[in-house]
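Risk register update: the risk that structure generation would not scale has been downgraded. Supporting records follow, first protein first.
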Amino acid sequence: MILTKLKLENFKKYSSFEISFDLGLIGIIGKNGSGKSTIFEAILFALYGELRNKGDKEVVRNANASQKDIVSVELEFEIGESLYKIIREFRGKTLSANAKLYKNEELITTGAKEVTTAISNLTKMSKDAFMHTLFASQKELTSLSNSKPEDRKKMIRKLLGLEKIDFVEKELIEKSRELKREIDAFKEVLLSSEDITIKKENIVEQTVQKEEFLKEIDKQSLVLEELNQKVSTIKQELELFTKTKEQKQSLKARCELLTNTINSHQKTQEKLQNELNTLYTKQEELKGLQTIKQEYINLHETLKEQDKLKEYSLRKDGLLLEQKELREQYTKAKDSIKVLEFETKEHLELVEKEKELDKSIEKYKQLLTNKELDEKRVLQEIAGEEKLIADIKKKIENITTLGKESNCPTCTRPLLDEYDSVIFSLEQIVLNTQNTKIDFSKEQLANIKDEKEKLEELQKAHIKEHFEISKKINLIENKKRDLQVQKEHFEKVTQKGVKNKEELAKLEIYSYDKNLHEELLLKQKELKTKYEYILSLETMLKRVDTIKEELEASQHNQDKYNLELLQKDLEYKAINYDEVKHQEKAKEFDEVQKQKDSLVTLINDLKVKIATIEGQIKTILESLQNNETQLKKVQTKKDDLNDYEKIKINLAEFKTKLNSKVAPRISDIASNMFAQITKGKYQHIEVSNEFDFYIYDEGKKYPIERFSGGEIDLANLVLRIAISKTLSELSGANSVEFLAFDEVFGSQDDTRRMEILEAFHTIKEQYRQIFLISHEMEIKEMFERVVEV
């Protein structure tokens, strides 16, 4: 794999960025925080859809981008003769992922997960393997030699992916222990052979007893059937007795009810006849009082006419009194209108004068505003000149303090012989400014203030006059409203007087006699008691017909009930019912029912015993079946345990073989590179099976810690490259042809840096692209190609 181009949009630090990659030794140079490492984070994200740390998804969008802006990473690379391009995007508030993979500009895969799978197949590496194989930092290089042996071993095994084997081995051991514990636990719940034999014999015994109970149930069921038939026959006979008894009791109750009803009708008829005789007597009395009734009616009509005449007389007196009051209001309103019309005649003239004063006041207000602006302008001019004088005085003071060696405040050259003339010139500027510009401005300011005071006096006089006129206008407008009210009132009084006069003319034709009216009322009072008694008699006599009808209806109903009583009495006497036989039959039914209930209880008890036996048999069978199931599970777990033990043995053999190949291969690759870099000074680097490092010097083996810092750095570098190359060989990823190192120079001096760069130049034949990331700007001249960020 060779990287060719990277394009970023809104990715972390970059809002928009594009870079093309060449072959050879390439330096990625930039200050701390400039985004150097972000370039390779973007490459990792493009290939595998993940950042270096998975939890960083929320910070992937550029800080200046909105939630609507797309985060996009586009990477182009070559494998063999084919050109590939990946486009990965985050969209929306939730940063939804999407991806596309092109081969020779043809779309071959879409979808974030699908593209990641395709890349893993192409590179034959997972994300972690890709990072461990192709990326290294200064911290990682120094850790190779500086770490404790156990920490170094863990780090290298992690780089090589061997920790996964350790994890699997640990899981196998734990799983084997768990299976052994489970097998031991099963032994405590499994049945012994003796328990199984006892349970099977118990099933045979329970089955025999169940058969005996079933035979007894059949025998007793036949007896129960006979009793059921007998109970049914006796029950039918009892129902007949009960029905006959209820029928006779019902007829007896009806006869008693009819007798009481007939007696009640007889009493009602006597009462109605007495009331009817009394009404006949009142009817004769009413005939003699008819003349008094007619006299009272005629008198009532006459009094109604007198009431109407009295009403007309009272209305006439009221209208005469109201006319008198209206004449007084008419005269008073007419005088008020005349006075108010005189007092409001100046209204229009005053309104016009008020408008003229409004214009004058507004004119003075504008003139005063202009004067205030002039005043501010002159004050600003004076302040500017005074500031200029203060600055010049400060310059004079500074020049005086420094002496003739000071610089000119205008051209900044040394004053020397011009010292006195410069000070004199500056003093003249101060004097001229004080005597001419400032004095002239102050004279202008005094004139403006005098004119402003005169304008303010004129404005106050006009405002005062305007206030007085406004008061008069308000007073006149109030009186005009009063005038309108008085006119409306005058009109109403006039209309009301005319209307009353017309009504009085109509009432003149009516005459009312008070004495006659009182005599008629007295006579009505005398006749009223007799009239009311007549009315009560008439009301009472209206019941005569009703009472006659009620009397006839009662007599008719009594005849009907007498006939029904005779019929019901004959039916009652015709029913044949024997109470003694009824009681004997009920007693016989109870005895048979008791026999039946006892037999049912016996049969139910037998059924309960059978159900209990069946439950016991079912429990025993389930126990035996469960034991069989547990035996099968135990055997399965024993089989699994044997499999795990075999896998552990094979895995241990695999680890031994792998270690015997990995360490020598790393030693071989590192030794060739180290000899080439050191120009044959050191021929061999040994990597033990425990991943301890040794360097051979003149045929003798020494620990890596014995050598100088520069030699250790070079050794760490070739060891890291050897580990990467070994990991590539193990994974089969020989198509990846680049390496990337982040800040591997550290705080090295120039000599060490040159040695490291020389090492990279030596190995670049094995890798077509080598990227070195550094913030050291001064080393950029050492690279074949440089990318500055």
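Supporting record for the second protein:
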Amino acid sequence: MPETDENATLALSFDLTADPWILVLGQGGEHGELSLRQVFDQAHGLRRLVGDLPTQEFALLRLLLAVAHDALGGPRDVEHWAELWADDDCFAPVGAYLDEHHRRFGLFDDRTPFFQVAGLHTAKGEVSSLNRIVADVPNGAPFFSSRMPAVDRLTYAEAARWVVHAHAYDTSGIKTGVVGDSRVKGGRVYPLGVGWAGNLGGVFAEGRTLRETLLLNMVAPADTVGLSDWDAGDDLPAWRRDACGPGAEPVRRPTGVRDLYTWQSRRLLLHADGDGVHGVVLGYGDPLTARNKHGCEPMTAWRRSKTQEKKHGESTAYMPREHDPARSAWRGLASLIANRGAPAQGAEAADYLPPRLFEWISQLVTSDELDEDFLVRAHIVGARFGTQQSVIDEVVDDHVSMAVVLLHERKSEYAEQAISAVTDAEEAVTALGDLATNLARAAGTDSEGPRATARDSGFHVLGTHYRTWLAALDGSADPYAARAEWQRQVHRIVGGLGDGLIDRAGDAAWQGRVITVKSRTEWLNAGLADNWFRYRLGTCLGHPRDSGQPTDTGGESEATVPAAAMSASAAAAPVTEGHV
């Protein structure tokens, strides 16, 4: 074995159960760094975890959940969960559990270093820069990072957090082969995919404290729709399994969340001395394909993939539904709460499946274990990879708060109206974008920039208002009246944004010009564009003075259409997104 600083490493000690390394935010906004034991002891007084990146927070939360599931032996079902929720000291058994397994939580243990492989080395004894595991140092683009030009050293605490993150979100690409890995060819291992969480459009539920957050995300498979692929008797976290060797373990499915949340997707070993960690050996670990893992992974939504069905000859194939960095969490509410569970036998498979986590919370509120006005924050986290998944291009981090009545199985009207309210906003912003397009065309200028700017402005302003509206939609409200009020609010806000566009249109737009729409020519000016815009708002939202039931956007009523727009629409069809 090549000469390394192994002797120095053997003398090091960093116990993750006792030494501070997890970043937290207190209820008063103060930041701190705690050990595993302290996090569970103080969870009731902490607001949340924080991380060097949002993806690190998600990876660390899943680690804590694996500890909690294993230490508490559950929850077994809704009733067991309710007992934990009611017990202020429910995490008390975690202390004894960490005492029992503390040897596996030693970052520099000589035989079983935490989430690492003792003695891991390459044929030539190479030790890579810490850039390989620190995700905020983009390879080839260090000017985008606060760490320039590279990471020379990390504290033990920082290194521990990035080790957890590497198993969850490490990039793909060609990696240097390690001795003992049968996949090595010519000193390299060719791309085998990103860390498991990197495949997901990650989502978790946040409560008022870290204690509530941990409990809300502790699912019981027996009472959760769709979690069918668990083997509770064999569901063990990585530290209760045999230590990994340098190569991959036999191909297998995860046995449950304790296994999945601690999946060893990489083989790595930190190199350190008394002043910190200065290098790493990093290789591929246990492979895990994303296809059809909806029966065991609760913290992502799923989409049906016809491509995967054809490729593998399967009747149905589901892939994780990744987040779109350009789409805010509130606009994707339907993917979290829509009732799109497995169809009845013989029916066509659903195109989308919501996160099993929210199916679980649905059981809690439907069983009256959570009050209908209990406010939960759906927090979405994800990584967008680029260049054959060899780099992280973007990190998605957003949230939307909602009362859990939206998940109540017998009160689906709340979810339906909340989702329809998003559609209201989408259609109104589309009309605003069309107005910007028509004004630009009337003036004879490029329309793409104004359209994009108008849409961004519309979604930005409506996003703030929608979040406030949604958080107030609890079990005591009338969801239909609430949506009708939302439509009036959208009409007022988007109408005002349209007024601003008209006011800034300029003389050329007011004078107008002849444009070509499909195969015919029409005259277009700011006045006509304004009339079409008001007509569109009235069609999708109703007249601002209307009251009662929300407007049915599937049809049009003359009562909701301004007279000027009626005369304009009779003269010519508006230029809409579909026409441009």
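The chain is about 35% helix and 15% strand. On this basis the risk owner (M.S.) recommends closing the item.
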